[in-house]
Amino acid sequence: MATKQQSKISKAVLLDLHRRMVRIRLLEEAAGRLASEAKIPGFIHLYVGEEAVAVGGCVALNEGDQITSTHRGHGHLVAKGGQFKPMMAEFMGRSTGYCKGKGGSMHISDLDLGMLGANGIVGGGVPHAVGAAFANKYRKNNLITMAFFGDGSTNIGAFHEAANMACALHLPVVFMCENNEYAEYTPRERVMAITDVADRAVAYGMPGVIVDGMDVVAVYEAAKAAVDRARNGDGPSMIECKTYRFYNHAGVSAFGTPYRTDEEVREWMERDPIKLFEAQLELAQVLSAEEAQAIHDEIQAEVDEAIEFAEASPMPDPSTDMLTDVYTEAP
Amino acid sequence: MTVAETETEERIIRYNNAFTETLRELLLDDPDIFIAGEDVGRYGGVFQSFAGLNAEFGDERVVDTPIAEQAIVGLGIGAAAVGLRPIVDLMFMDFVMVAMDQIANQAAKMKYMYGGKATLPLTITTTGGAGLGAAAQHSQSLEAWLIHVPGLKVVYPSNPYDLKGLLVSCVRDDNPTVFTLHKKMLGSKGHVPEGLYEIPLGKANVVREGTDATIIAIGMMVGEAEKAAETLAEEGVNVEIIDPRTLLPFDTEAVVQSAKKTNRIVIVHEAVRNGGIGAEIAAQIQEEAFDYLDAPIARVAAPFSPVPFSPALETAYVPNAESIAEGVRGVLYRNV
Amino acid sequence: MTTVGIVASPSAGKDLRRLVANAGSVGDVDKISIIRRAASGAIEGGANRLLYLDDARHLVERALEGLVSRSQTNVNTERIEIPTLGSSRDSVRAAEALAKDQVPAVLVFGGDGTNRDIAKGWQDAPIIPISVGTNNVFPLSIEPTLAGVAAGLIAAGEVTLEKVAHRAKVIHVDFEDRENDRALVDVVLTDDDFIGARAIWETENLRSAVFAISEPASVGLSSIGAALENIPRTKDAGLYVEMGNSKKNVRAPIAPGMYETIGIVDHRVISLNEQVIVEGPGVLAFDGERDHILTDGQTATLSIRKDGPWVINPTKTIELANENNYFQRDS
Predict the structure, then answer these.
(1) Same domain, yes or no: B44 and B148
(2) Which chain A residues are closer than 8 Å to B250 by Cβ?
(3) DSSP string of B33-66?
(4) A4 pLDDT more than 90
(5) CB-closest option in A2, A202, A207 to C244
(6) Cβ A199–C28 below 8 Å, yes or no?
(7) pLDDT above 60 (res A89)
(8) Whether residue C12 is found in the same domain as residue C125
(9) Which tens digit of pLDDT belongs to each residue from C254-290?
């Protein structure tokens, strides 16, 4: 038999996939805790359970590529390289936050990283991905755009308009669907006559595929294929990641709700994307359990530091900050 | 009068052609500018406002889009957010409503909710106004819906000269602007210099100076107000006319000054009176110049109904020189 | 009661091969119409009881709903009473239930994987495997109406199974450390570390393979073997191939629209029951999908046995019925 060659995915990429997932998880668990202690005001939509999607997608991108996000956007920003301190500060409404305390969790963004913003309107960000992709094609800069969206947003007109336009204009977009089976608190089958969002892709004129959204390697492989297509000028594609959010649509509870069964939640938690991947990494002798734990500890320390930073940060000042950033002033 | 002005004054072109010419010059001026919208490409726009641009600049810069107003504005937002300077067209102002999420929730708020990092040099062009028998869904004047949204700029030129200068300013502005043409004025003529020039946004124009009363008129109503002023002059009434040109940000100072001078105000717009921009202007004037007013501020506007189809109804629906003159007589207590 | 069983794989036709190759997409609406056509054929062939697996997408239920409500005949539809999990286990358990009922003919809609699941649950199931559009070797490309008629004819006893069916070969895979598994077409050892998106589209990682079927006019990994030896599905033999850098190469369509060059180190025809041992590290792909990870030194023992499902030839079945004038009526 042939000798073992290098695996297709490099060790560096594997470790990157792992680290970014753990970063999302630990930040989210902390954010959830702080929200339940009322230290984070407003609504909070946690990404826990869906980490493999944002990470598999974003690791397949190049620096400079853009993403658009959803109202569950923390994971996307972390996956794109977002920093804990300004994120945590933003969650807490501090002036040191990514959005100077004016956006909060639901509008978390860093345009410098190409993360064009979480969005409080379901489906509202998808047309922006089409616009950014248009700009990339216009400038021939070899960048592409990835739109993250949920199953629910594919029922909104803006999604349809954007998907059609992206295909009609043959733009470098990857449509990355996080099908977590619930549009807020309503099961998918109550509001869609089809099970697979990917079925919709063909109608717009692009290929659509389904991957296991709890398996970060599967998502990464699919994302890579779609990203390559977009970058090579072959137009948009859609990837439907079958995933699940462990917590409710908003807030920090997972169990005891009327819209889904505890049994179902536990079944999905069995398929925790981080635990699955850590088992795979150990089997492939890429990362031992001890090494994984050390990474968790290191990231947890960074989260704790971010909390301290945020808590020590000033609130924005109503007398000076209310009316700034409404408009861009002429230079 | 300078020599240059004499020369340019000789150049009389149509309002619609001024629009096309300005777009062309802007496209030549800045490679980051592109135009996208329904029928704007090969066909040149339903009013031929984009005629020839696709042929000259190609499909990449003058883009035919699907009939999809949300995605058209969204396309502009995304492209602007990453550095281009898009001009997207919504054909009829009524269709602004179809794209309202993208305009009001997305474009207008991005800068603020993303902490100042988003810069959106986006211009949305559209056509408003009645008078073409286009009925309820192709004739509205919906500027009041837009001025309620912090983050937007709203512009409504009343003549070809202003059109060019204001459009250049809109496109060069780093904020999302809505630029409204009046579809009944497309054939109207006026002097327009060649080459790009800017008229600053947020600056009103005193169209006619006067002493007895002030008419604040928007869009096509400016022309009607001028006609009314002539009639009133024959009656010995000397009116001042102010064209705000930009509705948001609004030049409060200009109208307040005029109110202090003439003490009587008539606000004219084509939109329905209820909840129209006239209400906002009146409120601002009474806040700043209540003691100067010798009469309640009057509003001349459309009745509170959808725009009707029949010429008999539509003609009566849209304010005109006659109804404006009547409004002025009202604030002067000269009604017959 | 004349019973025909129906099992459909809801996930067929949506995997990554739509992005990395040129595989066709088959949406649920198409699948429902395919199942409906087959079911109407089964009724025509004499079935009056359709016993089906209610899959996660309710494809069969939706197909039958439209059919039976409009049908004049007195046909019972009955769902197999098992709890479904939405995984491939469902098909295995459905096959077990059909075995208990000794259903005389089963219509299987799906790819090689679905048929493998049926074979796991019911080793000698009488089946008509129907392709739903992807590249597959085991299932037949036949108009579903005719496949359905054939199933009905067998179930009604109009045609005897033994005259029109062959026993499928099965590749048995015995592991040291986990439950044994089986494949119907091929088992391939690849140089991967992960199961990921399952599909295989890069050839440089292929190491060795056992083919139960390698027929020249087919698409998929078995076409590699086919370029070396024609092993028809009915032949009492198999093929073992070692791949890697070599002067000897074959051109093979490993996925739709994708001819690749594969280096052949060695190959030989193997007999039934002959044992082939493969050794990790690597991933074992079953019928074209990555499925089992073998760590360094772990082995699996492969052998081809002729103990699989009875595969009904629909063309032959209809021809025999025709000879008996089944389709002639006196009015």
Answers:
(1) yes
(2) none
(3) EEEEETT-SSS--TTSTTTTHHHHH-TTTEEE--
(4) no
(5) A2
(6) yes
(7) yes
(8) yes
(9) 988 899 999 999 999 999 999 999 999 999 999 989 9
Residue C62 confidence (pLDDT) above 70: yes
Residue with tokens 């970063």: A23
* Whether B115 and A135 lie within 8 Å, measured CB to CB: no
Range of the domain at B275: 205-330
Per-residue tokens: C235: 């032949």
Structure confidence at residue C89 (pLDDT) = 85
Q: C89 in contact with A at a CB cutoff of 8 Å?
A: no
Q: Residue B2: is its pLDDT beyond 60?
A: no
Cβ separation C295–A280 shorter than 8 A: no
Contact map slice: C 259-288 vs A, CB within 8 A? 265, 278-279, 281-282
Buried b (16+ CB within 10 A) or exposed e, C199-225: bbbebebbbbbbbbbbbeebbbbbbbb
In this predicted complex, what is the ipTM? 0.89
CATH number of the structural domain spanning residue C116: 3.40.50.10330
Report residue C134's pLDDT band, with 50, 70 and 90 as the boundaries: low
When pLDDT is cut at 50, 70 and 90, the band that residue A7 belongs to is very low
3-state secondary structure of C90: helix
What residue type is A197 in one-letter code?
Answer: V
Structure tokens at C156: 């009604």
Structural domain count, chain C: 2
B148 catalytic? Reply is: no
The pTM of this model reads 0.91
**CA C331, CA C322: separation in Å to the nearest integer?**
18
Among B138, B182, B191, B269, the one annotated catalytic: B138
Give yes or no: residues C31 and C150 share one domain. yes
CB-CB neighbours of B222 under 10 Å: 27
Touching chains B and C? (3+ Cβ pairs < 8 A): no
Taking an 8 Å cut-off on Cβ atoms, the answer to whether A207 and C295 are in contact is no
**Which letter does DSSP use for residue B155 in this model?**
E
Q: Looking at chain A, how many residues does it have?
A: 331
Q: Do A124 and B84 touch (CB under 8 A)?
A: no
Distance CA A315, CA A96 (A): 8
Q: Which of A165, A173, A315 to mutate to test the interface with B (most CBs of B within 10 A)?
A: A165
Please give the pLDDT value at position B336: 57
Q: What does the pLDDT look like over A33-43, one tens digit per residue?
A: 999 999 999 99
Residue C198 sits in a domain whose CATH number is 2.60.200.30
Task: For residues B321 and B217, give the distance between their C-alpha atoms in angstroms, rounded to a whole number.
Answer: 11
In chain C, which residue's Cα lies nearest the Cα of A235? C19
> What average pLDDT does range C251-256 have in this prediction?
93
- The tokens for B144 are 């009041």
The reply to whether B3 falls in a domain is no
**Cα→Cα distances A255→A72, A183, A245, B259, Å:** 19, 17, 12, 64
Neighbours of B288 (CB within 10 A): 16
Number of domains in chain B: 2
Chain A residue closest in CA terms to B169 = A330
